[in-house]
Amino acid sequence: MKLTTRDMLLTGLFTGLMVVGAKLSLPTPFGVPLTFQLFFAVYAGILLGAKKAFLSQFIYIIIGLAGLPVFSLGGGIQYVFKNTFGYIIGFMVCAFIIGLGVDKLKKIRFRTILGISLVGYGLAYLIGNIYFYGILQWFTESGMPLYQVFVIMFPYMIKDLILIVLASYSATLVMPILRRTGYVTV
Predict the structure, then answer these.
(1) What is the pTM of this model?
(2) What burial letters (b/e) apply to 74-96, b meaning 16+ CB within 10 Å?
(3) Which DSSP string corresponds to 107-160?
(4) 26 within 8 A of 33, measured Cβ to Cβ
(5) Domain of 14?
(6) Is 75 among the domain residues?
(7) Fewer Cβ in 10 A, N or C end of the chain?
(8) Which residue numbers in the chain have pLDDT < 50?
């Protein structure tokens, strides 16, 4: 994939927005902070397309695992053992899948963008919740059933669902302008 200077800037911008989304977090009693990362992952997929959105999320993961404290609870290679790391993987998959869907669109419509975004949202939570469950089972042998993780995550899922609707709607307003100005090509 050949990246132009504009591509590199936009990819870097969304990597940075993921850091901001992670740091705008509120602690919760479940050990999973309330963040805005999924919002920015969705937006990356919508505005950058599959390859650049994936790259923005991949870079985010790499710099976090390299030790920079860009994740909501820090950074470093040991982060893979945190129950929330699966959501970070899910953000990358989410951005890529949404980008794939948007790359194929001829017309920008709210319902279409929302539908594509909901698929990415669902995958991010599916991956994240299964990872959360796996870490719990591996380290604590809690015996908690998988559905209980979905129950615990339900408030986060509702918050992110609302943010997904907002991201999808605002993207339908922004994308035509960005296309006309040449800032995005999807």
Answers:
(1) 0.91
(2) ebeeebeebbbbbbbbbbbbbbb
(3) S--HHHHHHHHHHHHHHHHHHHHHHHHHHHHHHH-----HHHHHHHHHHHHHHH
(4) yes
(5) 5-25+33-181
(6) yes
(7) N
(8) none
